[in-house]
Design a protein that fits this description.
about 250 residues; alpha/beta; three-stranded mixed beta sheet; 9 strands; globular
Length: about 250
């Protein structure tokens, strides 16, 4: 095996991987040609694993497991497979980053409006609309707890780890799409943007800066400060934006 410097990205789904991995790989290699970007799909919302049992089953963990247990197991499983296939060792992995959707999780509970006829949760810049407000609030509380748990994680078995976000979700953040999008639509849009950003890393950098400024006008804010602001601001987790601009700084 050839010694390499690997950044491992943990992502929720296929559209996230399709967009963010080539975009960040191009940007990271522009800065350090010897760094490669790998990804692991979680295939569930890790932050709500305590509420939804299918997440625990995916990772063969007890019900009520903490998201940090899920992340640790996913990373160890990924690295073990990479070693078995001769791609890289644990010692090659320099950083682990995870990107999550906020899904409006920190919206004031009074802003959750019940509309019994809805088939999907809907959002605007200030409110969340759901067919069952009580269930939606329970999910939001679980997500709040899960996000705080992952945000407090600093390493996975001594490999530095950091959590980043997009709000409210990937399609809203990068494309300004407000409504629900089919899986096919997500994949197509992600592929288009991925090609644009991979071919032009500077354009990707500008996009990340624009999304950051939508939430944080001060570019000198620390990673911790961006999270604290999300936790404190009533509807920031609903409003289009991200702190992904800070991800490359974590890799230096």
């Amino acid at each position: 095996m050839v010694k390499s410097n690997v950044v491992l990205m943990l992502l929720e789904g296929e559209s996230d991987e399709r967009l963010l991995v080539p975009a960040f790989a191009s940007l990271i290699q522009q800065r350090n040609a010897y760094t490669r970007t790998e990804s692991e799909l979680m295939r569930c919302d890790v932050t709500t694993i305590k509420r939804f049992t299918e997440g625990a089953r995916l990772f063969d963990l007890p019900l009520g497991s903490d998201p940090r247990q899920v992340v640790r197991k996913a990373v160890n499983r990924h690295i073990a497979l990479a070693k078995e296939e001769g791609r890289y060792r644990r010692s090659d992995v320099s950083r682990i980053v995870q990107v999550i959707d906020l899904d409006g999780a920190f919206t004031p509970l009074d802003n959750v409006i019940e509309k019994p006829d809805l088939s999907h949760v809907e959002y605007d810049e200030h409110c969340i609309y759901a067919s069952n407000a009580v269930k939606q609030i329970d999910t939001m509380r679980a997500k709040q707890e899960g996000v705080r748990s992952l945000r407090s994680l600093t390493d996975i078995d001594d490999i530095p780890y950091r959590l980043f976000y997009v709000a409210r979700n990937l399609e809203h953040a990068f494309s300004g799409i407000v409504g629900n999008v089919s899986q096919g639509g997500k994949a197509r849009q992600a592929a288009i943007l991925a090609q644009q950003y991979a071919d032009n890393p500077d354009r990707f950098t500008q996009t990340l800066k624009a999304l950051y400024v939508l939430h944080h006008s001060n570019e000198q804010m620390t990673w911790n400060e961006t999270w604290n602001r999300v936790f404190r601001s009533p509807t920031l987790s609903l409003a289009r934006g991200s702190n992904l601009m800070l991800l490359p700084r974590f890799l230096i």
